[in-house]
Amino acid sequence: MKSQKSKKIIILILSSDKYPSPRNEQIQFETWVQRSSNFDMEVFYYKGGEKFSENKNYITFPVGDEIKDIGIKTLEAFKWIEKNFEYDFVLRANSSCFVNLEKLDKFFSTQDSSKPIYGGHFNNYNNQFNYVQGVGILLNRQSIQIILDHEDKWDHSLIDDVALGKIAHENLFEQHPIESLFVDGKILNGDMDKNFI
Prior knowledge:
Largest sheet: 8 strands, mixed
Low-confidence stretches: 1-6
Order of helices and strands: EHEEEHEHEEEEHHE
Strand content: 15-25%
Strand order of the largest sheet: 3-4-2-1-5-9-6-10
Helix content: 25-40%
Mean pLDDT: 89
Number of strands: 10
């Protein structure tokens, strides 16, 4: 049964108990996560562990918590939101990501949801297909449903963002290249270009 509390945008943040993730997650909450509800968004941190649990916006799935397990965790997170929420769009991010909520909301408000959307900072995998770098993968509900319908095609020998890109390529997802801002020490001086998502 779907939750009565629906959100237009779900933000899934790949989480971990290992440093620096807990520190980063605290900073995320203090800087942008606590404002997400102003934009009809809901944020969930997800990680692997011994058993399934929900603690406020922290979700643990009964899978491993190593790099090789990220694809499995991500699929479990997609299944969880599909089962529990009415939503239109998803951002899959990580704990080192700062999200410009205004730009994210603006991007999604201009998208046609009738086609599977796949957006973010693109790289190429061995001249075979393009994939979105895992720091910020933008999808719509149709994309999530196609990914779950093709779960058996997820190539777990590849890192998760590449494996997702392979499914997106094989299913002709509409690509939306969006540049990301990779920050350096200048951010400590408040020097950040706010034109990026």
